[in-house]
Amino acid sequence: MWVSALWKREYDQSRLFLLFVPVVHFLALGLQRMNKWFFTDPYFVAGNLRNLKNMTDPIPAAYDFGSFESVGRLWLMLAVFVLALVQIGTERRNGSQELLFSLPYSRKIIFLHKWMLGAALLAGSLLINTFIDMVVVPSSPMSPYFSIVYHLTQLGYSLLLLAAIYTLALFIGTITGSVAFQVILTIVTLMLPIGLGPLITNSLSLHGAIDIAVPSGIGIELQNTLNISRYLTLSYDDFSWLQVLGLFDLLIVAFFCGMLSYARNRTENNGKLVIFRAWERAIRILVVLCASMIIGLFSSSLFNANERLGYDIGFIAGLVVTTFIMLKIAKLRFKV
Amino acid sequence: MVPIYEQIVQAFKELIAKGALREGDKIPSVRELSAQLLINHNTVAKAYQELERQGVVASQRGKGAYVAKPAEEPGMERERVRQLRAELRRIAVEAHHLGIGSRQLADWFGEEIQRYGRDEHADRPQST
Amino acid sequence: MLTVRNLHKAIDRRPVLKQVEFAVAPGLVAGLIGRNGAGKTTLLKTMAGIIDPDHGTVEYEGQSVHRHPSLKREIVFVPDNPEGWFGYTAWGCADLYAQVYPRFDMAYFKDTMRRFGLPVDRNIRHFSKGMRMMFSTALGLSTKARYVLLDEPTNGVDPIAKKQVLSLLMEAAAEGVSLVISSHLLEELERMTDTILLMKDGAVETHTSEDVAGGRVMKLQVVFAGEAPEMWLEGRHVRVLENIGRVYTLLLNTEPGSAAYEELQGMEPLLMEPLPVKLDDLYVWKLGGETDVG
């Protein structure tokens, strides 16, 4: 299973980048901790300690509820996102993918080595910086509140969340035909629940279905749960085992979907938006639906007399127009 | 058009006749000649086989091929001599049709003999 | 033995490969010819496992290379531009390939690079077109794989580099490496190859290089008695290559079903001299009708 040549190629491709990531991670986490407890006016430090003493549960507060870790996670997410682009998207354009595919290895093995590099980057940076933090905290004024459980929880949670996002970005790379569209589709996927939630609840409420969706809060709940980007900056107090389970499922599903579609990669479609026809159709339908809902909501605000009729007219007109545009676009082959 | 392997055979014979290659000289390996002339190695090998068959070169196992001693006894090469006579006849006929006079043809032939011909008395024992 | 069986591939719903069938025996040199856009690159990439076929198989010693990628240790693809190596030095490429191909010959690679005067420590991106092809060819041959597939190794390369690349290929062939070379250099290919693979309408026709006509086409120099038979000359089985005064150079279809030769004999021309059919005659005969491909 282990192919040193593939590992070496993946490593060579992003060597500088890999060294850079733990440093940035340190600037976001270890350095900030030191700033707060070592390089701040002793008067403020003493004040902070006094506040902690009066609290019933001082540990999360001592660790600022994980806000430094959150910033670290944001940087790491940016890093693995770029890595996923380099590993899948840009390789379609610069001949690397053809070179890789001509080697005597199966595409599944190639995908596995790509993924392992990203996983190793995450694990490496998180381990190093957790370790640094675990050295900084006990030697700082906040040492009475040192909690090994806190550090390990943050480590595990960050690793799982970032690995899931990274794997999702890889998977999206395996179905898109260019870097640009990999970027767009990954961001859209991460942000989709935020936009789609209100769009659907508003559309439903116009048609009288509001009573089911909104008061019970299911819509909001669902929207929050599916919004992966929210977990990046989640407070330490809000971590839950259910999230862990969900993220783990996402990781597994994205991994296997990615591996399968990489193995079936349609090399000749590189440069198109999406390289599989089924996915292209699914994405096109989603785009048409969203655009039609937006146009529907917009036109409902123009028809004060009958908002529901306004919505329906807008929705159907939107459906026709965007379908037409989509069919036109499908004929183009973008070289981005 | 003469097939490529025959062109190679002819070229070697000319080089030997001109004295550019002498008896005992090593000739390039199939690989070298193939790369030099950009000709398929099977074609080169075929030409070498033909040269060997005709006794123009002789190969020594593991050492490559060398220019062989010229034929001592024309009787041994009767078939080649017959071919040579036929070739000369063809040339004479062709010259006739092209309206080339006998003297002109003899002159041209003389030039070629000057260039490639062999002095019978010096080089080889009297035959027939 | 490298065998291509019943290969089909459509790209953007346009069939590019249609029932491609041929085999390249060990130690042979095959030339792949065809018009631009005829699908030569697609065929080579499919043979190298870069593109998946819709139907059919590419087999090495009877096993599908798409199903068993490890077989590709014996099949190396040399693309027309080593883009995938940009960012690497020649040295770095050899180092990586040495880990991939078990018989990689580092001494041969170094020797060849020195012979060509190529720097081993410069980024491939900064190589000229000629240097790139010399490097790629040397790298591909250094793997000592049994089959090397080359996509237009001489396209856009200057005459000196071209000669060097082709010499290197001929040397390797003499040592038993099988080559598949796609090229438009018909004259060179005719001398260098054992087999010609002619691509037309997505299919491949195999010809031996020694006798490209193979009894299927005949080239004649003809002088007609009296008026030239215009109708006959424009027929499906006849192509006029050249016409100087009364002398016509013709290609005739001599495959079963064509009576062109018998018809010509019946006209009792003043002169009817057979000429050897060369590869470019075959090319014009087979592919000349189409002004545009793709």
From TrEMBL, chain A:
<feature type="transmembrane region" description="Helical">
    <location>
        <begin position="16"/>
        <end position="34"/>
    </location>
</feature>
<feature type="transmembrane region" description="Helical">
    <location>
        <begin position="111"/>
        <end position="132"/>
    </location>
</feature>
<dbReference type="InterPro" id="IPR023264">
    <property type="entry name" value="ABC_transptr_acetoin_YtrC/YtrD"/>
</dbReference>
<protein>
    <recommendedName>
        <fullName>ABC transporter permease</fullName>
    </recommendedName>
</protein>
<feature type="transmembrane region" description="Helical">
    <location>
        <begin position="283"/>
        <end position="303"/>
    </location>
</feature>
<keyword id="KW-0812">Transmembrane</keyword>
<feature type="transmembrane region" description="Helical">
    <location>
        <begin position="74"/>
        <end position="90"/>
    </location>
</feature>
<dbReference type="InterPro" id="IPR053046">
    <property type="entry name" value="ABC-5_transporter"/>
</dbReference>
<feature type="transmembrane region" description="Helical">
    <location>
        <begin position="179"/>
        <end position="200"/>
    </location>
</feature>
<feature type="transmembrane region" description="Helical">
    <location>
        <begin position="309"/>
        <end position="330"/>
    </location>
</feature>
<feature type="transmembrane region" description="Helical">
    <location>
        <begin position="152"/>
        <end position="172"/>
    </location>
</feature>
<feature type="transmembrane region" description="Helical">
    <location>
        <begin position="241"/>
        <end position="262"/>
    </location>
</feature>
<keyword id="KW-1133">Transmembrane helix</keyword>
<keyword id="KW-0472">Membrane</keyword>
TrEMBL record, chain C:
<keyword id="KW-0067">ATP-binding</keyword>
<keyword id="KW-0813">Transport</keyword>
<dbReference type="GO" id="GO:0005524">
    <property type="term" value="F:ATP binding"/>
</dbReference>
<protein>
    <submittedName>
        <fullName>ABC transporter ATP-binding protein</fullName>
    </submittedName>
</protein>
<dbReference type="InterPro" id="IPR051782">
    <property type="entry name" value="ABC_Transporter_VariousFunc"/>
</dbReference>
<dbReference type="Pfam" id="PF00005">
    <property type="entry name" value="ABC_tran"/>
</dbReference>
<feature type="domain" description="ABC transporter">
    <location>
        <begin position="2"/>
        <end position="226"/>
    </location>
</feature>
<dbReference type="InterPro" id="IPR003439">
    <property type="entry name" value="ABC_transporter-like_ATP-bd"/>
</dbReference>
<keyword id="KW-0547">Nucleotide-binding</keyword>
<dbReference type="GO" id="GO:0016887">
    <property type="term" value="F:ATP hydrolysis activity"/>
</dbReference>
<dbReference type="InterPro" id="IPR003593">
    <property type="entry name" value="AAA+_ATPase"/>
</dbReference>
<dbReference type="InterPro" id="IPR027417">
    <property type="entry name" value="P-loop_NTPase"/>
</dbReference>
